[in-house]
Specification:
The structure is a homodimer. By secondary structure, chain A is an alpha/beta fold. The first copy, chain A, folds into 2 domains: about 130 residues, NAD(P)-binding Rossmann-like Domain (Rossmann fold); about 200 residues, 3-Layer(aba) Sandwich (Rossmann fold). In chain A, about 35% of the residues lie in helices and about 20% in strands. Chain A has 12 helices and 16 strands. In chain A, the strands form 4 sheets. In chain A, strands 4-3-2-5-6-7 form a 6-stranded parallel sheet, sandwiched between helices. A 6-stranded parallel sheet of chain A has the order 9-11-8-12-15-16, sandwiched between helices. In chain A, strands 1-10 form a two-stranded antiparallel ribbon. In chain A, β5, α3 and β6 form a beta-alpha-beta unit. In chain A, α1 runs parallel beside α6, α3 runs parallel beside α4 and α7 runs parallel beside α8. The longest helix of chain A is centred in the C-terminal third of the chain and has 15 residues. Chain A is globular, with a radius of gyration of 20 Å. The interface between A and B is large, with 39 and 39 residues.
Chain lengths: ~350, ~350
């Protein structure tokens, strides 16, 4: 099942955690879906200016509770955190009870499925509203057959040298840049944060492994009439925990072009520190070789994640990677996407 | 959850299908678990000599129904077919009702989960017995961390140029041959037929994709105190529908050695005929390259599936593949496993 979330007036629930690392879901929503956010629910930070807690975010009100937010006519509360373990923090529960009681929907990417909580499920039913656990893709029974390569939409997949190197953000930035250039561009979400940002998608890592590539194929078919799509990659082809999902996306989406995402200076896998990350040129080669039997896709550019580096250090990294790979290289956030989009258009003849 | 099936007096249910292609599950059980089979349930073939229906199978009685079989003290009925679609054929239902009513367990690898059938589930509970749907692995939440490479057991994984080229049979034959040589060898089942043969295992293609390699890691840990294990491979690294599972097994089990299984003369993927199968040398190379970041594993021999070929044609294929790959090559069924085991022992220093 492809999620499709019709809500356009969101309250982001961060109760006590706004500005902390675990509120990154809310931060992503503020960055990429600002027009659909009416406010934040966080009694610990209510009334504070958002800029005192987060940088680079345009103004948005922080409410102490659902009753204060109701005059802004919200239609859903989105759980804006990604806690370790994935359970709902207790202080958030009352907000969800208040929201459901007023007929608002609830959107969550937590591991713990809120729709299976008897009290919350009963409240949703009684108030004629819904709980969307976007991490649960529901039943999917498609075995991929390489059908994505037959769609007319050009397919660009972000891949990476590790987890957490900017695959989702790069795909989002590329789609935004392509739209500005007048291309009919779609973003294809494959994880819960991407789904919450874009409002549709499938969390492919929670599909049965026999059907994971099939889920990717379904997603591409969903945008088959667009001009180009940017698919959010997952995992890493050399991480033992995630490589199966990574390869399912590679073979399920049949990319015409890939963007290799990389975090300069990271030499060990973030979630598997005993193992060094293979050189980027080697990773580019293995990606191109492993997709070739299904559909020939090329890595056409490199997106670097240089957050926290000085401008000089970032520039040196960009130059060094460009020299090593002989590919256009940029940090989409720091440098914009012009050179990456140009490489994609040239390769795809768009 | 790793299945563990304690039954040692099995009735194989084939009702009307014995000798047909879909009874291959029963045939595998007869080949690899003959001492634990007390008979076959098939009213259409009851009383016939088994040799009139199947070749190369030692004598076993065929019963018309559970009542006739009871004097042989069966402890479980195993659904011995793998029908297209995976549902229970209606003529089999009464046999299962009779079996459960007498307190026998039921073992099934069907897609349709028999434990979710209200009538059968109720009968099992009332008669204090169980229904084992071995295709359903239950909840598994392990993210692989490359831990298999730290176990002391030597790990041999069968891989293949396509689906249906003998990966399970090769692993089983190698384990049997290794046991005969005095090695403390385990067979690690990763699919439903393998589980029914060996009595334990996980159907890895029905694990959530985030945890598929973790399931493989759990399986290796289960045999960590053995000398060597032969893991049944799944899928194909270049089939879009199955490659994610294949790579999860490669990274989850961290093989020290791989055996490449191949069916001579097959040039197109069996379940994806629009795509040619890449040359075997290229496939050997990509397998070795893709496992290397996690654990260096080598393809040390080739197992051919030459069923249906004349002896001359089989010999020519074996010689041709041996020349191309420069590796010991044999059909485990036609030629035995000596040369393959020798290559494994040499590589692993056993």
């Amino acid at each position: 099942m492809i999620y499709d979330l019709p809500y356009r007036r969101l309250l982001l629930l961060t109760e006590g955690l706004l500005g902390m690392f675990s509120s990154k879901t809310a931060v992503c929503l503020l960055r990429y879906r600002r027009p659909h956010v009416v406010g934040i629910l966080d009694s610990q930070n209510a009334g504070k200016p958002i800029k005192s807690l987060l940088q680079d975010v345009s103004d948005v009100p922080i409410f102490a509770g659902v009753p204060d937010a109701l005059p802004h006519k919200p239609d859903a509360v989105l759980v804006g955190i990604a806690p370790v373990g994935g359970a709902l923090p207790q202080p958030m529960r009352q907000h969800l009870i208040d929201a459901l009681s007023k007929g608002l929907a609830v959107i969550s990417g937590l591991h713990t499925l809120l729709g299976e909580d008897p009290e919350l499920a009963e409240l949703a039913e009684r108030n004629n509203t819904r709980i969307h656990d976007v991490r649960d893709p529901g039943p999917i029974h498609r075995i991929a057959q390489g059908l994505a390569r037959k769609t007319r939409v050009k397919r660009v997949l972000t891949v990476g040298t590790d987890c957490g190197v900017g695959k989702m953000v790069t795909a989002l930035e590329l789609q935004r840049a392509a739209l500005k250039l007048g291309l009919d561009a779609a973003f294809v979400a494959t994880g819960q944060t991407g789904i919450m940002i874009e409002g549709w998608g499938i969390a492919v890592d929670h599909v049965l492994s026999d059907f994971t590539a099939g889920a990717a194929e379904l997603l591409v078919e969903h945008v088959a009439d667009r001009q180009i799509c940017f698919v959010e990659g997952q995992g890493s082809i050399e991480h033992p925990g995630y490589s199966g999902v990574t390869l399912s996306l590679l073979h399920g989406t049949c990319p015409d072009a890939m963007i290799m995402c990389h975090r300069p200076g990271r030499n060990l896998h973030s979630e598997w520190p005993e193992c060094p990350i293979a050189p980027i040129t080697q990773q580019i080669d293995i990606h191109e070789r492993i997709v070739a039997p299904v559909h020939p896709g090329k890595v056409v550019a490199v997106a670097l994640h240089t957050a926290g580096m000085t401008p000089d250090a970032a520039d040196r990294s960009i130059k060094s990677i460009a020299d090593q790979t002989n590919l256009p290289t940029a940090d989409p956030i720091r440098n914009g996407c012009d050179s990456l989009i140009e490489a994609i258009r040239r390769h795809l003849d768009l």
